[in-house]
Amino acid sequence: MQKDFDLQDYLTRGVERIVTEAVKATLKNPKESAFMMKFAKASRNASSKRKKAEENGEHIPPFLIASITSKCNLHCAGCYSRCNHATVDSEPVKQLTSEEWLKIFNEADKMGISFILLAGGEPMLRRDVIEAAGTKKNILFPVFTNGTYIDENYSSCAVELAEV
To answer: Where along the chain do its domains lie?
Structure first.
């Protein structure tokens, strides 16, 4: 008889696989490797927090998707965000501030969430939120971007935040 599917365990193992592969990918660069090893430890601690919460009947997911803006500079064919009208050409309305996002990131950290995908619209338009995310050392923030705003300013910002 097949064991019942455990979504929490499945998602946690998925995050652990990503972290393990990222550690392997950084082995040639000691700084990157040290950063990823610290994150791997933080990820294990986050998993323990989620397990304790689960034992108390509270389900905490191992990762989140944060759509940090509805603004985008492109009109890509098949864009999920434009398809459901979450991204439009007008200025965003009722957009969270970087301080509000940082509060969410802090709460996520306390709850044991160790992976937050930053999406949009085009998340690179929210440098303030990217910088706020960079202060959270226990959370990995992949960015789902079209790449058109990646420039020297973002590259130097990423280096500065990684060294903090």
So the answer is: 7-163
